[in-house]
From TrEMBL:
SUPFAM superfamilies: alpha-helical ferredoxin, NAD(P)-linked oxidoreductase. It comes from the Bacteria. InterPro entries: AKR, AKR2_Oxidoreductase, NAD(P)_OxRdtase_dom_sf, NADP_OxRdtase_dom. Residues 15-203 form the NADP-dependent oxidoreductase domain. The lineage of its organism: Bacteria, Bacillati, Bacillota, Bacilli, Bacillales. One of its GO terms (molecular function) is oxidoreductase activity. Transmembrane segments: none annotated. This is Aldo/keto reductase. Pfam families: Aldo_ket_red (PF00248).
Length: 335
């Protein structure tokens, strides 16, 4: 397994990171097998969160006895000092550890949320306090709006940043990653296959790995997935392959969606899950689970075109911070 130094944290991490969110969908016994297999194969970066169901509990049960073998990151979505401190302490108990290497302030997508966590009684104060006592090694941030994350990296000395990076969501390359590089912030790229969507898994993983990200974080829930992901990233990406991957990805981001989730649809159309894979679907097809998810929204596309409250200006477009022509994109996806 190839490794890198995670920015200014100084931590040595595997190029492939284990995203533990999907552990909540499998049994404790299977989770034990999968995560120990991942460690045995050389994966040393483990990512979880308090909001990932029983993921922390399963990790604690499975690998706390191997604590020296991996870098452990967890997250809090709480915004206030008291709630964040309580949640972080609970995470430590569930993970059966005295410390986490990285505590990430999670899913910060609105400026108001950032103001809340940065306030005197905000979540960052709780993280700093626990850091000073040795329970936290480094403080990071996660979110779905790369241009805002870039701004916030200038405002506070976050040690790491977690963001989307894939063939269908390359937006972090434009502002966020250059800013992170200039500040020596550890970069963790998540969702390289965009959740359940991108069918060319190896190429998708290698596209993300061809970037300057220190870790490519992939959600895994089986030994087969662990082995396949490791195989995909065994060797580095050379200049010729990088160019081919960029050519493969060309135009797949024209939907413009960052998955910030500002929008919502009264008809139940999952807008990010519709827009983000739409061009990829037309060109390469989706994984089976992704196609099923996409079709759940597609069944409602015709209603979108005639829904009275959205005739003059669709409600989702009014909420979108990027002013995307969402209804036109849905019409395009209808063919």
């Amino acid at each position: 397994m190839r490794t890198s130094i995670l920015g200014k944290t100084g931590l040595t991490v595997s190029k492939l990171g284990f995203g533990a969110m999907r552990l909540r969908a499998i049994s404790h016994t299977e989770a034990d097998r999968v995560i120990n297999h991942a460690l045995d194969r050389g994966i040393t970066y483990i990512d979880t969160a308090a909001s990932y169901g029983d993921s922390e509990e399963k990790l604690g049960s499975a690998i706390s006895h191997r604590r020296s073998e991996y870098v452990l990151a967890t997250k809090t979505m709480k915004r206030s000092y008291g709630e964040a401190k309580q949640e972080i302490e609970q995470s430590l108990r569930l993970l059966r550890t005295d410390y986490v290497d990285i505590l990430q302030i999670h899913y910060v997508n609105y400026p108001q949320e950032y103001r809340e966590v940065r306030a005197a009684d905000g979540a960052i104060r709780a993280a700093e306090e626990l850091q000073s006592k040795g329970y936290i090694g480094h403080i990071g941030i996660t979110g779905h709006r790369p241009e805002l994350l870039a701004r916030w990296l200038r405002d506070y000395p976050f040690a790491t940043v977690l963001f989307h990076l894939s063939m269908v969501q390359p937006f972090a390359k434009r502002e966020l990653m250059p800013m992170a590089e200039s500040l020596d912030v550890g970069m963790i790229a998540m969702k390289p296959i965009s959740g359940p969507f991108l069918s060319k898994v190896t190429e998708s993983l290698r596209y993300s790995a061809a970037s300057s990200a220190h870790v490519v974080l992939s959600g895994m829930q089986s030994i087969a997935e662990v082995d396949a992901n490791i195989a995909a990233l065994e060797r580095s990406v050379d200049a010729e392959e990088r160019a081919a991957l960029e050519e493969m990805a060309a135009g797949l981001d024209e939907h413009g969606c960052r998955r910030c989730n500002y929008c919502s649809c009264p008809l139940g159309i999952r807008i990010p899950d519709t827009l983000i894979p739409s061009r990829y679907r037309q060109k390469y097809g989706l994984l089976e689970a992704g196609e099923l998810m996409w079709q759940q929204s597609a069944d409602k596309f015709a209603q979108c075109m005639t829904y009275e409250p959205c005739r003059e200006q669709p409600l989702c477009q009014q909420a979108c911070p990027y002013h995307l022509p969402i209804q036109a994109e849905i019409r395009r996806a209808m063919g």
